[in-house]
Amino acid sequence: MIDGLGVLIAVAVVAGTGILIGVVLGVANIKLHVDVDEKEAAVLGVLPGNNCGGCGFPGCSGCAAAIASGKAPVNQCPVGGAPVAAQIAEIMGTDAGSEEKQVAYVHCNGTCENASSQYTYSGAMDCRVINQLPGNGPKTCTYGCLGGGSCVSVCQFDAIHIVNGVAVVDKEACKACKKCIEICPRHLIDLIPYSSTEVVRCKSNDPGQKVNKYCKVGCIACRICEKNCPVGAIKVENNVASIDQSKCTHCGLCAQKCPKKAIEIVG
User: Fold this and answer.
1) Is 74 left (phi over 0), alpha (psi -120 to 50) or beta?
2) CA angle 66, 67, 70 (to 5 degrees)
């Protein structure tokens, strides 16, 4: 039998231990307490929560912290777009601005029918791997889309697919997170304004005579588009045409005049 004194001692020890733990936790709570920025929490609450990193910060929490501290604009989140930017602007007490939505675009039309091949490849479908193969891959053009689908694998929004050997972006599904841009070993993808209608679908820097040998629709740097553009929105540099979308008036003349159909009219 445990006498009454033993019971009292045991109770005292347990109670004392509980009190000690309570004191330690209380002190720790004070020492480690971090004030929550109400605006940061509110901004985080309206962000989409994809944590894709397209904003340039480590996830939505990083983006929210940057916006709340004034280190990033209210429209920093490319996934949320204008609707989310408007909500954040209201939280921050600022104007959301009127920046146009951006979408990814693949500057290549070297499909199986349009571009020639050096050999047939059967192996890992990863553009980074394919680009290291002999001749920089099976396609004769060393600038074109490899069709391995690395961009597809990193897109969280099912906005990009391989169609007939070339990556194609669904502009309605694209959130401009830039994951496809970062992973493409040939740097064929970039962001263009959603409203763009004329886009050069080629990135080859080879001379026109060489392009003609391996691609039916490659830019040959003939400068016909440049000469016919009424507003000077097109320039041919390093053997390939490019369009300054900020100057383009969407007249369509460049696409109509291009003898190789290397300029696409997008809807």
Assistant:
1) alpha
2) 85
pTM of whole model > 0.85? no
Q: What is the pLDDT of residues 170-181, one digit of tens each?
A: 999 999 999 999
Q: Are 135 and 128 in contact (CB under 8 A)?
A: no
Structure tokens at 60: 């939505």
Sign of CA dihedral 136, 138, 142, 145: negative
Q: Which residues of the chain have pLDDT under 70?
A: 1-8, 10-12, 15, 25-36, 98
How high is the pLDDT of residue 162? 97
Instruction: Name the β-bridge partners of 102.
Output: 193
Closest-CA residue to 110 (of 218, 183, 198, 186): 218
What does the alpha-carbon distance between residue 160 and residue 163 come to, in Å, rounded to a whole number? 9
